[in-house]
Structure formats: C-alpha cells, structure tokens
Amino acid sequence: MQLIQKPRLALFGLSFLLALGGTGLQAQSTSGTVSGQVTDPQGAAVPGAEIRLTSEATKAVRTTTTADGGRYNFFNVEPGVYDVAVSKDGFSQAKFQQQTVQVGLVLTLNAALQVGSTGVVVEVSASVGAELQTTNSTIGSTISGKALDSLPNIGRDANAFITLQPGVAPGGQVAGSIGDQNQFLLDGGNNSSGMDGNNAVYTVSSGSTTGTTGGTPSGVMPTPIESIEEFKVGTAN
Q1: What is the CA angle 223-227-229, rounded to 5?
Q2: What are the pLDDT digits (tens) for 148-173?
Q3: Is the pLDDT of residue 210 over 50?
Q4: Dihedral sign from CA coordinates of 209, 173, 160, 103
Q5: pLDDT digits (tens, 9 = 90+) for 128-141
Q6: Which pLDDT value is given to residue 34?
Q7: Which residues, 6+ apart, have CB-to-CB distance to 124 below 8 Å?
Q8: Coil, strand, or helix at residue 181?
Q9: Which of 82, 125, 180, 212 is the most core-located residue (most Cβ within 10 A)?
Q10: Residue 40 near residue 91 (C-beta atoms within 8 A)
Q11: Terminal CA-to-CA distance of the chain, rounded, Å?
Q12: b vs e for 135-158, b when ≥16 Cβ sit within 10 Å of the residue's Cβ?
C-alpha cells in the first residue's frame, strides 16, 4: 500500500500481494508518467515536435521533443491536472486540456497534427484508453479528496482502507495470502515492518493490544487521514 502525504506531496499507498514463491517487487514512486506519439494527417510519425506540459496548480512548465518515432515521455510527473500542448512548424498546435495524472500510472496522449499555422490551436480530446495501463499489470484504484474523509474508517488511519478492497480480509490477507506478504510505501519509501511486513502479525500495531492478536494492517509510521493527500491499494503477481 502506497501513501502520499500532505501538503501536496502526494501520499501514495500501495499494498502488493507477492506470490508465495515470490518474484521481486518493483520499486514504486509517488509520481506518474505522461507519454504518447505525434503523427501527421497521413499517420506518419512526426519527430522534433515540441511537447509542453503545464501544471494547472503551479503553472510550472516542462518541455521535451519527440524522437524519430514521434514518441515522447515525461517521467516523474507530480500527480495533478495538466495541459499538454504539441507544436511543430507547418502544423497547427494541438492542445489537451485538464488531463489528470495519477500516481503510479501512465497517461497516454497521442496527437494527430493538422497541416496549418502554428498560431492556430486545435483542442484535442484524449482518446479512449488514454489511462489504460499496458505496461503495468498491477490492479488497483486511487482514493483521494473527499473519499478519504467520507469512507468508513474506525481508526482514522489511511492504511485501514486496504480492508475495503475486494479480496482483502479484515486482517489484511490479500487474495488468501498471509498478511506478512504486504508491502507498505509512504511517499515512495518503505514503511513496512522489518519483522512481519504488515506490522500486525508479530508486532504491536494500532488497534492491537498484543503482538499476537494483530489488528488493522498498517505501516510502521502512522498515517492519519488528515495527513494523506492520496492513497492507492494495488495487487500484483
């Protein structure tokens, strides 16, 4: 489970299920990715096109250019709402407005440029499947905003939301696995108990009175709802 803390540090909480014969867990971050391909009216790749990524919250701008195949990537993008503008001499400018970047996910924005003046701006809608994750097999959803305050949570700890996910038992067992196979991440860093993983099996955690009775699955560092900007639970392997 990965969490992102306030103020606006994007607390990303991701709880992974590892197979009993476990493969290695890939490192998770507190940012997202924006990528895509730029083409001309005939569908050919457009190299050298300028891509501008502008944050609506901070007005910060990042730029890049498309490679020979017309593709571009912005890595380590802070979660939030962005405008994306695509420009190239001889073509009208294409612009995607108010595109949401979520932590740990890839937003794919492909642009088909039209021949014309760069002074002409064509607003483009994101194509169906822009948020489809084709390079990540993790299953999960992001919880943020009012949902964090409104969902039932007796202990007011964001980690407790893991038990609201499909296939998760009250003790934190995911899809039938043992709870110590969970991993908790706080702002991209490891927040799991070094002994039992979920800080609820062998060690005392919030909601438990002894080390053997368990309790709400949690990371080592408490994560009160009020301190969390965004939360995600995912299942992999």
Answers
A1: 105
A2: 888 887 778 888 788 777 788 877 78
A3: no
A4: positive
A5: 555 555 555 555 66
A6: 93
A7: 94, 95, 96, 111
A8: helix
A9: 82
A10: yes
A11: 14
A12: eeebebebbbeeebeeeebebebb
Locate CATH 2.60.40.1120 in the chain.
Answer: 31-130
Task: Work out the widest C-alpha separation in the chain, in whole angstroms.
Answer: 71
Structure tokens at 56: 């609506």
Say how far apart CA 213 and CA 208 lie, in whole Å.
Answer: 6
Letter string b/e over residues 34-58, b meaning 16 or more CB atoms within 10 A of that residue's CB: bbbbbbbeeeeebeebbbbbbbeee
CB 33 within 8 A of CB 25: no
Q: 198 near 180, Cβ under 8 Å? A: yes
Rounded Cα distance, 37 and 129, in Å? 14
Residue 190, SS3 per DSSP: strand
Pick the CATH number of 31-130 from 3.30.200.20, 2.60.40.1120, 2.60.40.10, 3.40.50.2000: 2.60.40.1120
Question: pTM for this one?
Answer: 0.58
The candidate with the shortest Cα–Cα distance to 125, out of 88, 67, 84, 87, is 84
Structure tokens at 79: 């979660």
H helix intervals, 152-206: none
Burial class (CB in 10 A: 0-12, 13-18, 19+), 64: middle
